[in-house]
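> example.struct
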């Protein structure tokens, strides 16, 4: 989930009593804690691939963020000089845990057990940017402020839980519109818009644009088998690109001047507005001796 939603979550958590003993600046600690796992985006200026592959890794993991809570609580206790270490620890724990819980319903999910496992856990209910989070955690508690800050914040979290449950039901309804079993991913403006992906034993992958009431075929893709594709799959970068893709498709293009282009695309992140665009898509140029001559984003 994006950082506006994480910030609102940390702010509202601080109103549930976690920050009372921390003092009037407890909301700052809540906001920082709820956003801190995304500090791994600092990888991007150094190595874009590493950032893509390991974002939502150790800083989001159950094996990583507890250490961040221990250090963060010590730092904020020293900086603010209010409350006890335990008071700060509770707020940091709530904020950091909220980050993982808010990423969990999205498509890309999060690496909850990294580095022990590189399995991504994602419910695939909500798109990565969802204005409903802003309404539930920003506007609704504001409208209900006469209830008191804690009660209004609880109402916001209950509204958010209801929205996620509604999205899960709409996902099932949208999947039922497809003419065959599909894996369903939220598109922008989900839960009204979804992308359905169906694959069979012939290596053909079919895509559908779904709503809870309609279906539109959106192309068929064939993951070719062949020597050049095997070259990509043996290359560490190609292996990681396919791991990162939620619904990968690998296609071999025409051979020109002794080199062949192979494209790794992720169908799960297709935009209805531009069906031919693929996030995380990578294009490889492979020489006849199986060397990757060039690799770049499409």
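> example.seq
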């Amino acid at each position: 989930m994006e950082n506006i939603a994480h910030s609102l979550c940390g702010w509202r958590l601080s109103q549930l009593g976690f920050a009372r003993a921390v003092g009037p600046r407890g909301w700052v600690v809540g906001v920082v804690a709820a956003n801190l796992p995304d500090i791994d985006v600092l990888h991007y200026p150094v190595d874009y691939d590493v950032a893509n592959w390991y974002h939502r890794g150790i800083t989001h993991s159950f094996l990583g963020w507890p250490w961040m809570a221990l250090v963060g609580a010590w730092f904020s206790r020293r900086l603010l000089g209010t409350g006890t270490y335990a008071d700060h620890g509770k707020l940091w724990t709530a904020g950091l845990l909220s980050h993982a819980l808010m990423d969990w319903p999205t498509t890309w999910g999060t690496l909850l057990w990294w580095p022990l496992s590189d399995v991504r856990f994602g419910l695939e209910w909500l798109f990565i940017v969802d204005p409903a989070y802003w309404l539930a955690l920003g506007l609704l508690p504001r409208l209900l402020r006469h209830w008191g800050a804690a009660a209004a914040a609880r109402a916001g979290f209950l509204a958010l839980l209801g929205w996620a449950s509604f999205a899960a039901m709409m996902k099932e309804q949208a999947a039922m519109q497809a003419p065959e079993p599909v894996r369903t991913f939220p598109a922008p403006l989900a839960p009204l818009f979804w992308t359905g992906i169906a694959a069979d034993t012939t290596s053909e992958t079919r895509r559908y644009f779904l709503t809870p009431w309609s279906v539109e075929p959106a192309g068929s893709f064939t993951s070719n088998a062949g020597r050049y594709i095997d070259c990509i799959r043996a290359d560490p970068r190609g292996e990681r690109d396919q791991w990162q893709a939620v619904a990968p498709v690998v296609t071999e293009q025409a051979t020109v001047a002794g080199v062949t282009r192979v494209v790794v695309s992720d169908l799960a992140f297709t935009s209805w507005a531009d069906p031919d665009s693929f996030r995380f898509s990578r294009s490889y140029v492979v020489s006849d001796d199986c060397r990757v001559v060039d690799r770049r984003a499409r």
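> remarks
The first strand starts at residue 183 and ends at 186.
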